[in-house]
């Protein structure tokens, strides 16, 4: 498994990986078992994010096995409703005794792991790489997880130990905000 920054030419594979794991592309059972991603990250958006250095990918046997996005909160143009709600909640969410708004942080996610690569440490590898990548620019990485996405919550909170900072609702859907400390390379 090799983790590296995404390149512009990765965009088609990134878009296909993202589309295959979207909420609407999965059955209810698949969503419950493996989790899902939301939002619309098409090839153009992923190419722009890769070009800005905001995507890490995992390669396994020459194929893209997974991806994770990292972005400064101010670098999200026209944020979708769940991101806008997170940005609006910064003053009431606390990270280590301070409002999130007074903390240098990066938006972590979405994280996507291809079906044939699950259970092989890809998500953990991407998570650890994201924490190292974030360290020069941020104190923490912050994500939102829809409460209906129990599989993602189990991975990030129960598995990786991300702290729950609070929650909010958008259009009748409940979200938890989770965070972890950025860590420089050892």
Brief account:
The chain has 186 residues and is of the alpha+beta class. Helix content is 31%, strand content 30%. The protein is built from 6 helices and 9 strands, in the order βαααββαβββαβαββ.
Topology readout:
Blueprint lengths: L1 E4 L5 H10 L7 H7 L8 H9 L3 E6 L2 E9 L9 H8 L5 E2 L2 E2 L5 E9 L8 H13 L5 E7 L3 H10 L3 E8 L2 E9 L5
Parallel strand pairs: 6-7
Antiparallel strand pairs: 1-2, 2-3, 3-6, 4-5, 7-9, 8-9
Helix pairs in contact: 1-3
Give your account of this protein's structure:
This protein is an alpha+beta fold and 186 residues long. Helix content is 31%, strand content 30%. The protein has six helices and nine strands. The chain has helices spanning 11-20, 28-34, 43-51, 81-88, 122-134, 150-159, and strands spanning 2-5, 55-60, 63-71, 94-95, 98-99, 105-113, 140-146, 163-170, 173-181.
Arrangement of strands in the largest sheet: 1-2-3-6-7-9-8
The major sheet is characterized as:
7 strands, mixed
Question: What would the principal axes of the Cα set say about the shape?
Answer: globular
Q: What is the H/E string?
A: EHHHEEHEEEHEHEE
Pairing-aware structural class of the strands and helices? alpha+beta
- Using only C-alpha atoms, the radius of gyration works out to 15 Å
Number of helices: 6
Using brief descriptors, characterize the structure shown:
186 residues, alpha+beta, 7-stranded mixed beta sheet, two-stranded antiparallel ribbon, 9 strands
């Amino acid at each position: 498994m090799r983790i590296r920054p995404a390149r512009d030419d990765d965009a088609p594979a990134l878009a296909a990986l993202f589309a295959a794991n979207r909420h609407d592309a999965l059955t209810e059972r698949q969503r419950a078992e493996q989790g899902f991603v939301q939002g619309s990250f098409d090839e153009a958006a992923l190419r722009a994010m890769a070009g800005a250095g905001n995507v890490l990918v995992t390669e396994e046997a020459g194929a893209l096995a997974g991806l994770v996005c990292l972005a400064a909160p101010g670098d999200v143009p026209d944020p979708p409703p769940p991101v806008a709600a997170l940005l609006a909640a910064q003053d009431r969410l606390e990270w280590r005794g301070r409002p999130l708004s007074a903390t240098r942080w990066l938006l972590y996610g979405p994280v996507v792991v291809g079906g044939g690569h699950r259970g092989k440490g890809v998500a953990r590898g991407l998570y650890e790489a994201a924490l190292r990548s974030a360290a020069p620019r941020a104190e923490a990485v912050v994500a939102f997880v829809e409460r209906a996405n129990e599989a993602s919550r189990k991975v990030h909170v129960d598995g990786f130990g991300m702290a729950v900072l609070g929650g909010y609702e958008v259009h009748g859907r409940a979200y938890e905000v989770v965070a972890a400390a950025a860590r420089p390379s050892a």
